[in-house]
Amino acid sequence: MNRTIPRLHAGAALIVALLLAVLAGAAPPAAAAQTLTWTAGDDITAYRSAPATAVAGETTIVWENSAATGNTTGMPHTLTFDTSTEGYNHDVTLNILASPFDTNNGRHTATVTLTPGKYRYLCTIPGHSTMVGELTVTSGGGDPDTTAPTVTAQVSGSRDAQGAYLGSATVTVAATDTGSGVRTVEYQVDDTSWQAYAAPVAVTAVGDHSVQYRATDNAGNTSAAGSVSFRVVPGQPQDTTAPVVTGQTAGNRDAAGNYLGTATTTLTATDTGGSGVARIEYQLDGGAWTAYTAPVVVSTVGAHMLHHRATDNAGNTSAEQMAHFTIVAPPVEDTTPPQVTAALTGERNVNGDYLGTATVTVTATDSGGSGVKTVEYRLDEGAWTAYTAPVAVAVTGAHTVRYRATDNAGNTAAEKSVAFTVVDRGSDACPDSDTRDTVVIDGHDTRIRNADTGDGCTINDLIAERADYPTHAAFVRHVERVTGALVTAGRLTQRQAGTIVRAAAASDRGEPA
């Protein structure tokens, strides 16, 4: 006997497959993400459809303004989440413009994460401002938050033996909410009017008091009003003693006690009445009273009066005290070195050389105010020597005198110098003159004419290559001085002088045998 097994409908087959999978221990498919859909049409005063509630968590937003949702005019609309109006969640930023003619044909999606509370949404296109609504988000499970917050209050402050608060009682309010979260906390003192609670409330009026308090969550649930009662009595005995204020003036002073350039006054105050110092003030030379925050620096030349006083937290002000002092201009610091000059005197020949003796007179003055302390000079390669009288140089040859001066402030003038040549008197100062035609040093012919420099002395005579020199360097410096003087006198060009000096440098003169 043949039996026909009926074929299962496709939907029934799927159910059977799912049942078999469950019986086999297979995990069911994951739940789809939450999707919320808004639509719009031709109306510019309201969305066509919009969700009213949702569950916190990741959510797919669908926003459609298309022909399919009834838009026959091509009118664009936006779906914008409000992120500024007080009382709403501001953690989702969404601003989507949709039109039947855009690239998505008016249908757009976005993924956001919603948190418990309320969101406000609206269309931001001008003329659409009435397209607005609210979305309430619960913490999950599909049940809206219907539980009001829990709110408590505590009273603190110094108390007497009967429990009354001395001078002041401070009320601190705290609220918690396990659902959508606390949105506002309010309080009122002695049934006056409800106010937003932002910080502990201090009640200082003497007498019996009652402070009420309540809280509202983001789902709009408001707790029943709670209340705390207490009594405030006068505090400690009133402070009627003024502070004590003192001033101390400091600075550099001259022999007469005047302050040089600046005087600095430091003010201090103490209060024994118990309330403590509230402020210190000062008045300079009859001016306005000024709050004291740092030492008072006075630099105006002349006599001054500095009045000062102090006030405590109970309002007691001390008697005025006064400091008087005089400021004088400080001496101007001398930073200018002396001015120093030198003059040469003596009988000279037609070449400008000094016959027998040249006298150097050094003069120094100081405009900085401290005065000249020392004047020094240095003859040729000698040591620096204190200048006390004009310096007479009688040694024949080229010489250089360097000079400088220092004032009492320690400023030293830049070194200066004067160069000159001393020759013997008479028509033939060099009787055994070297009359070779050219200047020759240690056998090297410079090919420069060995001219008579005056008084019967040639260039070779002045160079005196066969004289005794302690070192080769001393000989070269001697040649430099001789040729330098001859250049100044117009007997040599600068180039000729350089050739002679190089010949001296290449020689062996002055070196030990």
Descriptive account of the structure:
The protein is mainly beta and 513 residues long. It folds into five domains: 34-138, Cupredoxins -  blue copper proteins (Immunoglobulin-like), CATH 2.60.40; 150-233, Immunoglobulins (Immunoglobulin-like); 244-328, Immunoglobulins (Immunoglobulin-like), CATH 2.60.40.10; 339-423, Sandwich (Immunoglobulin-like); 438-506, no CATH class. It is built from four helices and 36 strands. The strands form ten sheets. A five-stranded mixed beta sheet has the order 2-8-7-4-5, with no helix packed on it. Strands 10-16-15-12-13 form a five-stranded mixed beta sheet, with no helix packed on it. A five-stranded mixed beta sheet has the order 18-24-23-20-21, with no helix packed on it. A hairpin with a 2-residue loop joins strand 35 (452-454) and strand 36 (457-458). The termini are far apart.
Layout: helices, strands, pairs:
Blueprint: H1 10-23, E1 34-39, E2 53-55, E3 57-64, E4 77-81, E5 95-98, E6 107-114, E7 117-122, E8 132-138, E9 150-156, E10 165-166, E11 169-176, E12 182-189, E13 195-196, E14 201-203, E15 207-217, E16 226-233, E17 244-250, E18 259-260, E19 263-270, E20 277-284, E21 290-291, E22 296-298, E23 302-312, E24 321-328, E25 339-345, E26 354-355, E27 358-365, E28 372-379, E29 385-386, E30 391-393, E31 397-407, E32 416-423, E33 438-441, E34 444-449, E35 452-454, E36 457-458, H2 459-463, H3 472-488, H4 494-506
Parallel strand pairs: 1-3, 2-8, 10-16, 18-24, 26-32
Antiparallel strand pairs: 3-6, 4-5, 4-7, 7-8, 9-11, 11-14, 12-13, 12-15, 15-16, 17-19, 19-22, 20-21, 20-23, 23-24, 25-27, 27-30, 28-29, 28-31, 31-32, 33-34, 35-36
Helix pairs in contact: 3-4
Protein name: Copper binding plastocyanin/azurin family protein
Domain Blue (type 1) copper: 59-137
Signal peptide: 1-32
